């Protein structure tokens, strides 16, 4: 019994934080519609915002209580209270409490296992994790195959239709030689200026139609369906709650609009949003199993596995998907989550392979086979491509964040439909004349990766050949470049500039938009140009010391397609700052396991160069831009500040509101709640002794009082409220007291005022805390929340000296208020961040 009571004390750890939610649809379109302001004080409340606001859901843990005595005091352990274990929107979960709840659930399952008929339930509970990831993998693979097929068909319809079979895409229609352009269909002619203008017009018409339909569906039905989704997934996996972001409406609208956005020809990809789609599937299926639906921490294990399945179907890279989930998005990744992520990625890849959306009997579109090995001297151009990738990543992050910040702060951001139409129109008008920008980005990458061979008809493979004194064209790249190659290089240079500019303005639009494919396309273009340059250099100067040892005259030496693959990995690494998972994704994507060393060299170089300009990747930058409460585990804290320098309240703030353990009345307690907006209160021994007893949440107190009045007679305004084990001595004519020990967190996390902030930040990261109390010799001085830490890190990043305050002296005993102590400090928002 004693051990159970000790457990319940630990179980009763419930504290909440909040940040302002969106107030309009336009704000909702900006990611989660919230922006954390590190300089305002209007929201500086203790924990979850105002619990008395309409629509609030009260949350209370059942713990810490002991059986009632002969006074028949209400004890909340006897029956569940509505709202227990749930969280409001834009709140952070309590990882410690959720893990305690799961351990208690598991203990009960084991205890009932020996009973008759309970073995099947325990078996179902044990296998529910595998069932939910299986369903997630099946749904993710099926949706990914559907999106791939639909996007290819709608992208090809911009250039023409297949009259014999409307459901055929461009490649399938060519098999029957029945492809018809819009000029042939409308004007009856396939050549001439009129035909070109008509095809040009129809291309722009379809692009604008798809883009307009996509942004309208997002704005009207599911504002959360816009963007990549990975920054929000990272934040959700860290414990933050964004209601509706992984719901069924978001899933349905994102699936439809992702097809439309890709088909519109905008400089975006579908790979990032597929992670969001997979996580929506995981979230929906988790509600079928109480083990996950009633525990937010366990649900995030499913979401980690779902993100692995999303990358698996996006690139056909199941192992890379698991590593992506581990390296990039997951905050808590136990070993069993690793196994289930692997299984979910396997199931999703199997389903996608069964659907065979690319028609090549492979998981991926970019599978290549190179016939020439790489040589040691090629590491130099590979590293140069890595440098280019790092520079591009740093430039893109700064430019895109600057544009997104301007969008938020100007009137232009209030018209998302107009912005999407404008960007789509510019993209279509500029893209059509250039064949490398007109075609689908995935097809462009495939062409750039492909090595020249007898069956290749691309301009990139038109080399000159000397035969019997006559000039002819050859597909052998170890010959002088022909006019087609030079024309292709100029077109690729223009395509590179176009892609760089349009990707900056496209990522962040209010349509589903991924960044993987556009970044890879930029790197592939740059890599192919560098590859052709090195190839021609080796041909004309094969006697140089760099080429003499490896490149014989007339022999295969340089593979330009390999340079495109390395450049694609380098640019994607420069933008996202991924390393291990990126290398594995690329060699799974292309089948180029032999070229893993060049990939590793380029990716590491791009990361080092990018980190020299800023350690944040594009996803972390957007998390900071949107103000999400995310503590990045990769960020180092090297400053020498102490807890007392960061804690709230500061000297100029109003005093900290606290509760005494046994001398408050219901009326006084309600007065504290009505007169303050704090959502949590430290409980101390008495006005004379400020030693900490525990921590009580505002909403727990409110729901406890309401529940007591509804279910127990005799609870009046002058009833004594106490948080102790036994009732205080009261006069005989006193009304029945109210015991609230069951809602008291008996073991709140505390640190002393001299604790280094380096340790405090580490505690918050590893335990997933939302707040901890600061004490001096056992007396409460203040509180530190996750938001306070983020504010402090922001101040240090901008080299703003933090406001240093010395610890206040012990509170005076001549306090006129029975419920607050003049600590001369004021708590900031112990926001549920």
Automatic annotation (TrEMBL):
Keyword Ion transport: yes
CBS domain ranges (all copies): 647-713, 744-803
Membrane topology designation: Multi-pass membrane protein
Domain of life: Eukaryota
Cell wall biogenesis/degradation as UniProt keyword: no
GO cellular component labels: early endosome membrane; Golgi apparatus; late endosome membrane; lysosomal membrane; plasma membrane; synaptic vesicle
Keywords, alphabetical: Antiport, ATP-binding, CBS domain, Cell membrane, Chloride, Endosome, Glycoprotein, Ion transport, Lysosome, Membrane, Nucleotide-binding, Repeat, Transmembrane, Transmembrane helix, Transport
Transmembrane segments: 122-147, 203-225, 246-266, 302-326, 375-397, 417-436, 488-509, 521-542, 562-587
Subcellular location per the Swiss-Prot or TrEMBL entry: Cell membrane; Early endosome membrane; Late endosome membrane; Lysosome membrane
GO molecular function, one term: voltage-gated chloride channel activity
Biased segments, Low complexity type: 813-822
InterPro entries, per database record: CBS_dom, CBS_dom_sf, Cl-channel_core, ClC, ClC3
Region called Disordered, residue ranges: 800-833
Described function: Strongly outwardly rectifying, electrogenic H(+)/Cl(-)exchanger which mediates the exchange of chloride ions against protons. The CLC channel family contains both chloride channels and proton-coupled anion transporters that exchange chloride or another anion for protons. The presence of conserved gating glutamate residues is typical for family members that function as antiporters.
Similarity field: Belongs to the chloride channel (TC 2.A.49) family. ClC-3/CLCN3 subfamily.
Name the UniProt record assigns to this protein: Chloride channel protein
The organism of origin for this protein: Gouania willdenowi
